[in-house]
Amino acid sequence: MTLTRIQLSGAVQRPGRLLLTGLAVAVAAFVVFATVLAHRTIERTILDTHRGTPSAADYVVGTLDAPVRTSALPRIRRVPGVAEAQARTTAFLELRRPAAANLSVTADPGAGLLSQVRLLEGRYPAAPDEIALTRRSALRLELGTGDTVTVKTGSDRLVTLRITGLAVATVDTPTMRGLGGEQAFAPDTTVTGLSEPDSYLGQIEVRLTDSADAPHIRARLESAAFAEGPGEQAAVVPAEQIREQEKRDIINGYGNLFSLVSVFLTVAVLAATLISTSIFRIVFAQRLRLLALLRAVGADREPLARALAVEGALTGAVAGFVGVGAAALAGNLLPGALTLFGVRFSAPGVPLTPAAAVMLGAVAMAAAAALSPAASAARVSPLEALRTAATSAARQGIGRARAVFGCALAAVAVVLAVVAARQLPRPGHEDYHAQLVLLLIVFSGALAYFALVVLGPVLVRPLLNLVGRPLRKAGPLGRLAVEGVGAATRRAAAVSVVVALGVTMTGVVLVGAASMKVMAERNITATAPSDFWLNSAAFDPLPPKLVAEVRRAETLTRVLPQRSALVRIGDVREETQAVDLNLRKLSTWGKYRAHRGSLDALGPGRVALLGPTARDAGLDVGDTVTLTRGARTADVEVVAVVEGAPLNAGVLTDPAELDRLGLPSGPTGLVADAAVAGEQGRADALKALRSAVGPQDEVYIEVIADGRDSETADLGIAVGGVLALIALTVLIAVTGVGSTTALSVVERVREAGLLRAVGLSRRGLTTALTLEATLYGIIGSAMGLLLAVPYSWLLVNATGANVPTEFPVLQLVGVVLVLAALTGLAGALPARRAARISPVTALAVDG
Fold first, then answer.
1. What does DSSP say about strands 200-201 and 68-69: parallel, antiparallel, or unpaired?
2. CA proximity to 701, closest of 687, 714, 713, 711
3. Which of the pair, 169 or 43, is modelled with greater confidence?
């Protein structure tokens, strides 16, 4: 206990060193708990906005396997103990007036605990002939509160509906997202009245009264839900069971994002441990003289090492509490602040179990991080008390055993990386297990980084010779900075490997984000190449008058004709759609890429196939196949395979091939863009398209840009999550760099005094130490890029998602420059403090 009190007393007497040591652990705890809260925030936000069954529902009547009929709804509402029952169903109608379009009316009560709609304007419908439009549909149809629309139901009835208000859905379920055309909301009695008589409903959500006896009511609900048809029985399932299934389905859909968060959490813990280890190593190394004096007066190694480990554990306890508290405060305040900017995120709350786990983890992490430095420091010889701390801390090189161990780690890492590279998926490789390959790559990367930590002191000097050459030529201060790094390679490695970890993680995340973004944009562009698609009902040519009017519309631009036909490919019996759209004239042509082959080769006699179409036909680039339409055939060469194709096409072909297959020359469809960007410009363009369509024309208008907007929004969420991870990654690196660099400068006051004593000015000393700190960042960045480039390539290709590897060179260079500047800044502040101390005072300092 005496040794423990001595160590803690010494730490308290140096608050600057204690602050820097605790800061690293606190930020590590902050990052880990912030990552946990970010996971909860993402999960809660997705569930709150995508889950279909409200949290207030107690039972759900009707499932996909055991549906419920419309006639059961009033019987269920009459069951004693039922407070509210809401049917989830949609009526799909043909809008006849004021424009020809599709209108989907979704059932919702509009208020209450089971409502999933928010009223924006007017009042919610109450009568059977009333609806509430979405704001976007109202804009496109040029309608408002009080106007009427005429619709045609599935039973060919014409019904006039009055618009009583504007509303918006508060959830984004797959069903809601899949609704095409214009959208509206109404009570379920109105929707069932517009649907087929006694049709099946999606489900009925039931909320019970507080005094209801749930087990007895379930039996009554089953009796009330019994469909009149022979042998039919609707299922009654607890709503919590349905919500859990929805949760699993949603999380599975966002599995890659959650996996990324989980992987990052693991890496964050590893990074925090390594940073803390480096910091404790520096702190204990700079106290070697004090430790040697303790050894000289009889202190044993084991109690001394134990005292240093206890110091680390107590530091971790305080810092863990501060870090967790700061993360909880920031995590719950940030969603509220984001709502001011129109961004909605659910608050994560304060999960007590993870909070306690992170605090205990901070204690364990700090103790574990202190163990190795403490054991090393406790082995100090009493003779070290006769030496200066500066000399003790400036040991160079590594021992033979450490060198062999480091080389072995590097060799195993390379072997695992080569094995993983050979297992990467190739064209036609269907039996591929991504999890195993990803595990190999992550394990290889971890071993490579540990090899970097072990061999760091050896790697510093050759890298220093490379990056320090310009500074050597810049003058004496540059040479002094380079020699300062080279004279203490262990200290330089301790700082540089922290930077290397930050650069590696940030580089991998940046490459992954850029690659995913490029792939997503290509897929979005491929399936939605323009804003609008106007096509005939049965691949018949469009009326020439309609085509001419659309071309003359000032609110439309890039109006391109296209023809579609159903063809057979080779011996495949099922027909697929062939489209002759000229991709080169689209505004999105620059984003088109083939998965294999090249779209530039498209022309007479050459086609591109959609990936599933090519697989079904057993075709690949370079193969020749026969297209058949009726009695006509055309032999073509496959020059490209794409993963996404426009206008539901399975074959992208040249117009000459459709001519050979006997298709009439008139276009069967048109694609066009709105001349003015924005929702208003899109609404004006849609109005022009609808006005061109005559009452007898069997023509459909699809706003394919709506789907593109939805996919782009999802991409924005994913990229936003990745950017948040990058921010946490940079925070880890900056904290580690700042703490270790500041400690190395603060603890070298005696060395600074020697330089001042031989005539170096304050400004010169500050500049030299700042340049030295900047070199730490540059060397660490070089080490990090050596790992980030190959491992990011491996990780992107190992996903098996055909994602192209995109290296954002400017962003990677920016990361190197920013971290170099931050390391310089981290060294500049304590360097100025060291320079202000007089040489006499500095020389009297005992390290």
1. antiparallel
2. 687
3. 169
